[in-house]
Amino acid sequence: VSQKLYVMSMASMVNKKITLCCTEKDLEGDVPEARYGHSINVVHSRGKKAVLIFGGRSYVPLNQRTTEKWNNVVDCQPFIYLIDLQFGCSTMHTVKEIQDGVSFHVSIARSDTVYIIGGHLLENNVRSPKIYKINVDLLLGSPAITCNILQSRLSFSSSIVTSTCPDEFFIVGGYESDSQKKMTSHKVFLSNDDIEFKEVEAPDWTGEIRHSKTWFGSDMGHGTVLLVIPGDNKNQHSDSNLFFYLISHGEEDNLMAQSCSQGSLEDQEDSMPLEDSEEFMFNTDGFISDEDMYNEDDEEDESET
């Protein structure tokens, strides 16, 4: 697990060929420890912006490890980090309302506010129904952070959030417990001072989705989510072990599922192929591009970022 911070931006797009620029950002001050399962959001206040990092999970510090528990992980301390990307300055903040570390939560940002929804607490193995409403005021000199706790009837972890417009979002997937996937989907509405949830009609889940124990995915933007379902583990070729589904926002607030493939699911003749232009490659100049050359030996598992 790395504690480096990378900033990715689109350098150019020509004929569906996208070039991304990836730069490593040097940080000074209170640098967040290496972690995963955290959230990163951008907040705007007083004409300025900052990156807010919260939560996540990390390995036990080296000086606390034993041979038997060498690879154990713990929830990170419930600190809030604010990073000024222009100067690379990172500051750590505590709020009395947040007493426990949380990982694999959903975060939604709007202007100067970030909502932390759900998540898993490793120490007592629960999924929190709390919503942390974090407000950031980027005052000159020292930012001010306040937090209000809202209660929700939802408790989940590892869900995916996608936006359909600045004030509306969908939450799809995730887990309600270690052995129970979250099969329901919810629409989230943000107003100036409140957040509302509405259960919406879930997609017509396929048999692979309903019976799988594991699923994961990512926001594709514009109300679309890519879900990946592991298939038959007896097959040694990892490509053929994955089923891909695009979950998109339909009419009347319902969600639709469409299977797609990367050419490895030979039995799904009606599936929609993923475009080659969605594959990106690093080059020596620190850019990522989707050049036509492809080397399967360079392929790595990027299921967690």
From TrEMBL:
InterPro entries: Gal_Oxase/kelch_b-propeller, Kelch-typ_b-propeller, RAG2. GO terms for cellular component: DNA recombinase complex; nucleus. It comes from the Eukaryota. Keywords: Chromatin regulator, Metal-binding, Zinc, Zinc-finger. Residues 288-305 have a biased composition (Acidic residues). Residues 285-305 are annotated as: Disordered. GO terms for molecular function: sequence-specific DNA binding; zinc ion binding. One of its GO terms (biological process) is V(D)J recombination. This is Recombination activating protein 2. It comes from Rentapia hosii (common tree toad).
